[in-house]
Amino acid sequence: MAIAIFLIFAALAVFCGLNVVLRRHPIASALWLIGVMVSLAVLYGLLGAHFLAAAQVIVYAGAIMVLFVMVIMLVNAAPERRSAASRMAQALGFPVLAGLLAALGYVAWRAAPRAVVVTARKGTAHDVGSALFTTYLLPFEIVSLLVLIAILGAVVLTYKEKH
Amino acid sequence: MDAVPLSWYLLLSAVLFALGAAGFMFRRNLITVFMSIELMLNAVNLTFIALASRLGQVDGQVFAFFVMVVAAAEAAVGLAIILVVFRNRGTLQVDELDSLKN
After folding, report:
1. Contacts of A150 in chain B (CB under 8 A)
2. B72 pLDDT more than 60
3. Residue A115 pLDDT more than 70?
C-alpha cells in the first residue's frame, strides 16, 4: 500500500516538475509547481511528518505560490522567447546535468541500499513542536526576526515615492 | 506492512533537484528561474524528511521547517526585486538584463 502511494505521487511529482521546466508561459509553470508541492506533501505524510505535510500545503502551495501568481499577474508576463545564449546553455548544460544526476543517484544508491526501509516513528506536530520550542528555540526566534526583516525589505523595495 | 526503501526517496529527490537545476540553467524568464530555485529547495526538503524519518529523529524535520521559512522570506524579497527590475527595465528576459556587462 505504502509503495503504491509512493509510486503514484512520485510519478506525479516528476511529471509536474517536468512541466514546470518545459512550459513556456510562467503562469503554467507556477500552476504545475503547485502540483509538485502537493504531491510532496502527500509523501511527507507517508513518511509520518504530518506537521510538515500541513505546512507544505499552507506555506508553499498556499502563501508562496499565491505570491508568485500575484507577481506574474502584476508584471503581465508573456511566454518567454528563446535566444542564442540559451542554445549555448543547452549545449553545455545537458552534460553537466547528466553528470549531476548520475552523481546524486550514485550517492543515494550507495548510501542507502535497497534493504533499508523508511519507518515513521516520530514527526507528529507534538514532536516537532517540542523540539522547536526547546532545543531549537534560539534559531526559531532568529528566523522570526528574519521573516520580519524580509517583510520590511519587500515593502521598502517596492515602495513608490510620490513626486 | 510494506515499506518504501529509503533510496527511492533519495532518488526522487535527486531527480527533482536535477529538474530544478535544468530550469535554472535553461529558462530565460526571471520568474521561472526563481521557481526552479523553489523546486530545488523542495527536493532538499524531501531528503531531510526522508532521512529524519529513517533515523527516527525529529531534527531533520526541524531543519526542513527552517528551510521552508527561509524560502518564504526569500520569495518575498526576491519577488519584490523582480517587480522593481520590471518597473525599471520593462522586461524579465534574463539575457536582456545585462547592464552590468558593459
Report:
1. 72-74, 76-77
2. yes
3. no
| B70 to A146: CB separation less than 8 angstroms, yes or no | yes
**Which residue of chain B is at minimal alpha-carbon distance from A19?**
B19
The three-point CA angle A53-A54-A57 to 5° equals: 90
Which structural domain range is residue A53 located in?
A: 2-81+116-162
Per domain, the residue ranges of chain B are 6-96
CA of A38, closest CA in chain B: separation in Å?
A: 11
d(CA A122, CA A1): 20
Which is more confidently placed, B74 or B1? B74
**A95 lies in a domain?**
no
Rounded Cα gap, residues B63 and B65, in angstroms: 5
CA-based angle A12:A46:A11, to the nearest 5? 15
Predicted confidence (pLDDT) per residue in A27-76, tens digit: 999 999 999 999 999 999 998 888 999 999 999 888 999 999 999 998 88
Q: Supply the CATH number for residue A70's domain.
A: 1.20.120.1200
Question: Using an 8 Å Cβ cutoff, are A114 and B5 in contact?
Answer: yes
* Helix, strand, or coil (residue B47): helix
CA distance A123 to A81: 45
Topology of domain B6-96, CATH: Helix Hairpins (1.10.287)
Q: How many structural domains comprise chain A?
A: 1
Work out the burial of residue A12: count CB atoms within 10 Å of its CB; fewer than 13 is exposed, 13-18 middle, 19 or more buried: middle
